[in-house]
Design brief:
Order of helices and strands: HHEEHHHEEHHHEEHHHHHHHH
Helix content: 55-70%
Number of strands: 6
Largest sheet: 2 strands, antiparallel
Strand order of the largest sheet: 1-2
Number of helices: 16
Radius of gyration: 30 Å
Strand content: under 5%
Distance between the termini: 70 Å
Number of domains: 2
Shape: elongated
């Protein structure tokens, strides 16, 4: 393996500190303070105006098109990317913002050297105090290296998160040779990550003026990872064996999947859930592996944010109880009515159970009590769906 990422960052720090230390020895204390103030001023300017710089770049016109329009139109030319274009633009703007911060800071730093060259003629201390100048130079060198490395470090950590995602036991992206995992455990990574004072979070975000939302690089990367996890979980649904109808084994398989989805949802931020819902359309193709999804469910209307997968899991278990019930004598009418209403509003379990095409035959007294609860629903379509599901038409389905 070649030079590690830690070694590269360490080299940047050593070089920056060494050069600034030597320059500080030559300048002395007073001019060293002046130089340090200019560096901090460069940071302040690029920190405040980084968003403005990014906006200027994205709206800069090239041959009658803004850079943003050029990127959008270029991506849209690829049919496979068409549905992802609007989702990729925020990510691209975030990356442009990070590059703008680094390039802007470096550019302003070189401009500050011109200012320093002019200003030093007006700063003529009687004693240079070279040793103190060297100490100030060390501080300046550390600040310069730190400000350049923090955004790069943040991007590397996000890329590392993507490289560690696995589908069916295999990594989606293989970057082991780069040594991300070793770098993540290093001291220099710990310093850049835990002591940046929120710098990376500020730089790696994008405020969309159109929808009023703020996108972050961490949120967008986590969204991609979450979609992959959801896709992997949902692809297990067609593997559930419904050949013998709704059995304890098939119910356990389905509820395990649903509870896995609930865990994924609970581990996700608000931004991630919003973005995941927007990415569902694109995820459908990935879930189906390029083919028609084996269970006929309209996943395009699936809202991960709005679905309580734990409740859906409980519903599946309840359906099994209904199918296996010999009598509803132990269930209060209000409890059954509430259960039926919840089941009718199900966004996931009801379509899954319908698509499984199971032959459900209930005892007469159970069917009668269930029918009474179903007929209390206000939506005729819901009434018909549930009656068809539980075979409550006596084998004769009314025509609309």
């Amino acid at each position: 393996m070649g030079i590690s990422i830690s070694t590269i960052f360490l080299g940047v720090f050593i070089l920056s500190i060494a050069v600034c230390f030597l320059a500080g020895i030559i300048r002395g204390m007073s001019r060293g303070i002046f130089s340090l103030i200019l560096v901090l001023l460069c940071f302040g300017l690029v920190f405040v105006f980084e968003g403005t710089i990014t906006s200027f770049i994205m709206h800069y016109e090239i041959q009658g098109q803004t850079v943003k329009e050029l990127i959008t139109n270029t991506l849209a030319q690829n049919p496979e990317m068409e549905g992802l274009v609007s989702k990729l633009v925020p990510l691209i703007e975030i990356l442009v913002g990070i590059v703008s911060f680094i390039v802007g800071f470096v550019a302003l730093y070189f401009v500050s050297r011109i200012i320093f060259f002019i200003g030093k003629f007006f700063i003529r201390p009687k004693k240079k105090r070279r040793l103190l100048g060297g100490v100030i130079g060390i501080v300046q060198g550390f600040i310069i290296a730190f400000l350049v490395c923090v955004p790069i470090n943040g991007v590397l950590l996000e890329v590392n998160k993507l490289s560690n995602v696995e589908v069916n036991g295999e990594k989606v992206i293989t970057l082991d040779a780069i040594g991300f995992d070793e770098y993540q455990d290093s001291a220099i990574c710990n310093i850049l990550t835990n002591y940046d004072g929120g710098l990376f979070k500020h730089v790696a975000q994008y405020a969309d003026e159109d929808d009023g939302r703020t996108y972050t690089l961490t949120g967008q990367v986590d969204s991609v990872i979450t979609v992959i996890k959801i896709a992997e979980a949902v692809t297990k649904l067609p593997e559930v064996n419904f050949e013998e109808g709704l059995t304890p084994d098939s119910v356990e398989d389905v509820t395990t999947i649903l509870r896995d989805l609930e865990q994924i949802k609970n581990e996700s931020s608000e931004e991630v859930l919003d973005t995941v819902d927007e990415l569902i359309h694109s995820a459908v193709d990935m879930i189906g592996g390029g083919e028609e999804f084996p269970i006929d469910i309209d996943l395009s209307n699936l809202s991960v944010k709005d679905i309580n997968f734990e409740n859906e899991a409980v519903l599946v278990e309840t359906v099994l109880d209904i199918v296996e019930a010999e009598s509803f004598d132990t269930i209060e009418d209000e409890q059954l009515d509430t259960l039926v209403e919840t089941f009718a509003d199900s966004k996931l379990v009801l379509p899954i159970v319908e698509a499984a095409d199971m032959d459900i035959n209930l005892p007469d007294d159970v069917a009668e009590k269930l029918t009474e609860s179903i007929e209390k629903l206000e939506d005729p379509e819901q009434v018909q769906r549930l009656k068809e599901l539980f075979n409550l038409y006596g084998g004769v389905i009314p025509q609309p």
